[in-house]
Amino acid sequence: MDLMEYLDSTQKQVDRMIDRFFGDEFLELGKASAHLLLAGGKRLRPAVVMLAADAVKRGSSDEVMPAALALELTHSFTLIHDDIMDSDAFRRGVPTVHTKWDEPTAILAGDVLYARAFEFISIAEASDNAKVRAISMLAAACVEICNGQHMDMSFEKRNDVTVGEYLEMVSKKTGALYAASAGIGSILAGGNAVKTHALYHYGLYTGMAFQIQDDLIDIMTTPEKSGKDRASDIREGKQTLITLKAKEKGLDLSEYRRELTDKEIDELIERLASLGVIREVRDTALELVEKGKEIVSILPDSEAKRLLIDIGDYFVTRGY
Amino acid sequence: MDLMEYLDSTQKQVDRMIDRFFGDEFLELGKASAHLLLAGGKRLRPAVVMLAADAVKRGSSDEVMPAALALELTHSFTLIHDDIMDSDAFRRGVPTVHTKWDEPTAILAGDVLYARAFEFISIAEASDNAKVRAISMLAAACVEICNGQHMDMSFEKRNDVTVGEYLEMVSKKTGALYAASAGIGSILAGGNAVKTHALYHYGLYTGMAFQIQDDLIDIMTTPEKSGKDRASDIREGKQTLITLKAKEKGLDLSEYRRELTDKEIDELIERLASLGVIREVRDTALELVEKGKEIVSILPDSEAKRLLIDIGDYFVTRGY
Predict the structure, then answer these.
(1) What is the nearest CA distance from A139 to chain B, expressed in angstroms?
(2) How confident is the model at residue B228 (pLDDT cuts 50, 70, 90)?
(3) 3-state secondary structure at position B123
(4) In whole angstroms, what is the distance from residue A215 CA to residue A240 CA?
(5) Residue A104: its chain B contacts at CB < 8 A?
(6) What's the CATH code, domain A3-317?
(7) Hey, is B219 helix, strand or coil?
(8) How confident is the model at residue B226 (pLDDT cuts 50, 70, 90)?
């Protein structure tokens, strides 16, 4: 099976589970919790959970489905809370939870999904010992994500952020959940410490690359494809690897913290390209993916392993 | 040992653990997470975890200490998020987290404690099977608490709340965490389904009584003792069992939704007393405690069982 077919089929599987467990909420708070989940998504973290499980023990992806859903719930909970913190009004083409309802409801809606993530891991088909370790890994990832989000917010008030700090932030904010996805898939499928370690770090590095690609997509992709305004990071003064690398080369992007015309954005991209910024940022993402692919190469060959490698490549080639 | 001595000693034990794990936070977000925990508290939920464990298996309270801490962390996380939703500026004599830091930090600080609660259960000394069931029970309790808080907020916009709805809200918002405290103590100590069911419902009923007593304390206790302004619930127009019972007797407390003098509060209490409201509310709390005590009576006699019964009485006799 090729990767796009695989992702398409797991997406449908996850969508069906979400519909089954969250499609028919009775309470208003339940509807608020389900809102973003039902608005769609690529369901990449569940795919990584299932592939990691299959790479460790062929055919175990069905057994870890509840855990795959748990990782999507965790992702959705962080989006709901992040949208409050960032005052974002739209996501996935729908109003964010705190916009459609209110802030208190959005805080609680995230809190509900958070708990349900742990509930769903506890009902996966796996040994109790594996479940306890998986729960512990998810909890640790959640702490990391919070620290990453807090770092990211603190960056907005600083103008001396280093590339090292940025990479640390990305490893926590985005890497930790992909790491936990692959690690939990491995643990629940009975993977030993070496395999779990490899898969965890595969998720960490490719997850970081995923975020850097997101930063590139923000300026390179048209709004029709990406679903959000082009160059929103730059217009909002966010610190990304692009702004940090540009700064190293003497180009201060903070002067672009304002409304930009398409022409200005095109000129800016050209300038970033001629300074070598785009290439360096892309290289960083590619290097991280290579690290992830290398570390996962210790696993015995399988279709799942090949698809994990393909996902790494997909993370840094996707255009939206 | 008498109950006050016991509560005093478990409080010190929990305080020491909190100090060990949260007293020396390096990151700003860690400090924000630890802020309310370090501000003190009676640590009643940890005491219930430990007593339930001891009632099931004598001497097992040390083994469940991490889980006892987990229940306090869960309580603290709900307080941090509730304070944001209710816009409360002070608690336990210190500024609330969103006041001392900011709202985004407070959301994240709560989210960090949430994850760490699950981490701490996973390191309790118990069988893996027991830990998975305990984690599942904690997760379910968290969903209940969120639903209870959402119900409570929705009550503020309604004037047709029934006593039944109020009791349902209290069972979720406060009862569920006491229920989980006793249930988790039992599960981790190896309690069978009958004992765990009994202890869970003991926690549920006495926890509900605890909240009703809180409502009474709000109007009956002087600010010096309770640490908050007298009759704040009535001045803020909150729906409690007192306002609902008063309404049944034709006294609409919404006209008191304003600044009140001490004299006005004293007169109001007298009126509530002469209408029989105070007695009826107190009776409801006492009935719940009796239900809790009755259900826990199926356990074999032990000092822990006696202390659990004493805690029930303490919940509805305490003045602050």
Answers:
(1) 5
(2) low
(3) coil
(4) 7
(5) 84-85, 150, 153
(6) 1.10.600.10
(7) helix
(8) low
Per-domain residue ranges for chain A?
Answer: 3-317
Residue A94: its H or E element: strand A94-95
- Could you tell me if residue A102 is left (phi over 0), alpha (psi between -120 and 50 degrees) or otherwise beta? beta
Separation between Cα atoms, residue B116 and residue B57, nearest integer Å:
26
How many other C-beta atoms lie within 10 A of the C-beta of residue A273? 11
Q: Per-residue pLDDT for B238 more than 90?
A: no
CATH assignment of B3-314, given 3.40.640.10, 3.40.50.280, 1.10.600.10, 3.40.50.300? 1.10.600.10
Choose among B235, B217, B215: nearest CA to B227.
B217
Evaluate if residue A227 carries a pLDDT over 70.
no
- Percent of chain A exceeding pLDDT 90 equals 85
Choose the closest CB to B150 out of A81, A105, A150. A105
Out of B111, B138, B150, name the one closest to residue A29 (CB): B150
Q: Chain centroid to CA B136: how far?
A: 20
Longest dimension (CA), chain A: 58
Report the length, in residues, of chain B.
320
Position B205, amino acid: Y
pLDDT digits (tens, 9 = 90+) for A43-60: 999 999 999 999 999 999
User: In chain B, which ranges are continuous DSSP H helix?
Assistant: 3-22, 28-38, 44-56, 65-86, 97-100, 103-122, 128-155, 163-170, 176-188, 193-220, 223-226, 232-235, 241-248, 262-274, 277-296, 303-315
Inter-CA distances, A271 with A161, A265, A276, A278, B290, Å = 22, 10, 9, 10, 76
**3-class DSSP state of B94:** strand
Q: Which two tokens stand for residue A195?
A: 């395999």
ipTM of the complex: 0.95
- Dump pLDDT digits (tens) for A2-59: 999 999 999 999 999 999 999 999 999 999 999 999 999 999 999 999 999 999 999 9
User: For residue B52, what are its two tokens?
Assistant: 């339930």
- At B6-60, the pLDDT tens digits run 999 999 999 999 999 999 999 999 999 999 999 999 999 999 999 999 999 999 9
- Which of A138, A255, A266, A143 lies closest to A203 in space, CA to CA? A138
- The shortest C-alpha distance from A248 to chain B (Å) reads 27
> Are B82 and B149 in contact, with CB atoms under 8 Å apart?
yes
Task: Give the integer Cα–Cα distance in Å for A91 and B4.
Answer: 53
User: Which chain A residues have a beta carbon less than 8 Å from that of B147?
Assistant: 27, 29, 112
pLDDT band at A236 (very low <50, low <70, confident <90, very high): confident
Report the DSSP beta bridge partners of residue B222: none
| One-letter amino acid for residue A21 of the chain | F
CA atoms within 13 Å, Cβ hemisphere of B39: 18
